[in-house]
Write a structure and sequence with these properties.
0% helix, 7 strands, mainly beta, 41% strand
């Protein structure tokens, strides 16, 4: 029987009054949370590996998080990562991106 790959999830909630940019690395994708919204960042690790989160720099960490005014950057340390709402619906890159926002 094949071993299921480990999955980790991180909830990110915007408790502020303005849009909050969530950046998913290493992809550089941007996902914008409205005030009161919660997104879930997922990453999938390697099944059966001693260190399933291959990108981690310390121990066994599926995520690393950086915060700056108006944005949160989540670095995934698994083989793949994506963003969903709390019901599991995938959130596309650029969702609710303000007009004129520089994405370069």
């Amino acid at each position: 029987m094949a071993q299921e790959p480990p999955a980790a999830r991180l909830r990110v909630r915007n408790d502020g009054d303005d849009l909050l940019e969530l950046i998913l690395e290493p992809y550089g994708s941007d996902h914008w949370l409205l005030p009161g919204e919660t997104f879930v960042v997922w990453t999938i690790g390697s099944p059966g590996a001693e260190r399933p989160w291959s990108g981690t720099t310390r121990g066994n960490e599926p995520f690393e998080v950086d915060h700056a005014p108006g944005s949160v950057t989540v670095h995934i340390n698994g083989s793949i990562g994506y963003v969903t709402d709390t019901d599991g619906n995938e959130i596309e890159c650029g969702r609710c991106r303000p007009a004129g926002t520089d994405t370069a």
